Amino acid sequence: MSKCIGCGAILQNKNENEKGYVVSTNSLLCKRCFDLKNYNKNTDFESNFDNDLLLKNINKKGLFTIFLCDIISLNDKVIDIYNNIKNDKIFVLTKVDIIPKNIKYEKIIKSIKNNYNIDAYLFSIKNKKLINSLLNIINEKKNVIISGITSSGKSTLINTLFNQNITASHYKNTTLDFIMIKHDDLIIFDSPGFDTKIITSKIKNTLKEKIINLKKGYEVNINGIRFYSENNINFVIFMPNDIKVSTKKITLNDGNKELIKDNSDLVFDTFFIYFKKEVNIFINNKNYLIRKSVVGKYE
Predict the structure, then answer these.
(1) CA of 94: how far to CAs of 7, 90, 202, 275, 277, in Å?
(2) Do the Cβ atoms of 25 and 1 come closer than 8 Å?
(3) pLDDT for 74-112, tens place per residue?
(4) How far apart are the C-alpha atoms of 170 and 57, rounded to whole Å?
(5) What is the dihedral sign for C-alpha 51, 57, 58, 62?
(6) pLDDT per residue as tens, the chain (299 positions)
(7) CA–CA separation, 228 vs 250, rounded Å?
């Protein structure tokens, strides 16, 4: 049976509420991919996504695996998934172009090596040097799997490198099944993304740094996310231009206590905060992750 060239779902014209639905049997794209590409409209099919099964299928193929994770989603759980891939592999950190230009790529690579004990390659569709570096590896290996975390840019990478038409979006699990692409003497498999169910990055533009010195007795409000500490604290917010930040005397009385260790990032889906020193904070939000920093000290 034919597969959708956008997401890999098996095409069918029986049930429009199931993945792979097409209006016409001559279509190469399913209706979901057509709507995503033309209207940025997503049909979110209910599915019990199985990370273990995906990992098993990737290992079963036995091909060189390029594992992608965007710079916002990186955390210990992601590294665990990567370490369980048995194939020869490399780890690629994507969307690095959102980091302020004063933070050098070499520093990010060293931070990841120090904090997670892996060698990382970096990728940005805006950086020709990084594109060519990855393309050289693919040309050498010939047969590869492009895998990684959902929304990490797998399909965008393939479209950029090989002029394909795979559906790319900011929604989770855009790719629903393996898609095989033949390009000259290369065979590339685009894989569905692993779902960590923690953070889905919504950041598109370069972040700016904002240093905050928060005094005892005051709270900070970052687009409705509020927190404070019982001591004077310093931190750096990496955020888009449209994020609003303010401080005022503490009014928060229902915050959850959270320990942030030395050299850690507190990560949300549209910004993250770097803490150099350990601190307890009281916060009114639960949708975040805490990780070893990718921008802080690495010595």
Answers:
(1) 20, 13, 13, 23, 27
(2) no
(3) 999 999 999 999 999 999 999 898 999 889 999 999 999
(4) 24
(5) positive
(6) 577 767 667 777 777 777 777 777 777 767 777 776 666 665 665 555 688 888 999 999 999 999 999 898 899 999 999 999 999 999 999 989 899 988 999 999 999 999 999 999 998 888 888 888 888 999 999 999 999 988 788 877 787 777 755 444 444 444 556 778 888 888 888 888 888 766 666 677 789 999 999 999 999 999 999 999 999 999 999 999 889 999 999 998 878 899 999 999 999 988 999 999 999 999 998 889 999 999 876 54
(7) 7
273 pairs with which residues across the strands? 237, 266
Residue 213 near residue 232, CB atoms below 8 Å: yes
- Gap between the Cα atoms of 11 and 21, Å rounded: 6
Contact by Cβ (8 Å): 212, 237:
yes
Q: How far is CA 114 from the centre of its chain?
A: 20
**Structure-block tokens of residue 165:** 């038409």
- Please tell me the distance from the alpha carbon of residue 128 to that of residue 61, in angstroms, as a whole number: 30
From CA 274, how far away is CA 97, in angstroms rounded?
Answer: 18
Q: Which of 209, 254, 253, 212 is nearest to 232 (CA)?
A: 212
- Using DSSP's 3-state secondary structure scheme, residue 133 falls into helix
Please give the sequence-ordered ranges of beta strands (E in DSSP) within the chain, or none if there are none.
Answer: 64-70, 89-94, 120-123, 143-148, 179-183, 186-190, 208-214, 218-222, 225-228, 233-239, 245-249, 256-260, 264-267, 272-275, 279-283, 289-292
**One-letter amino acid identity for 189?**
F
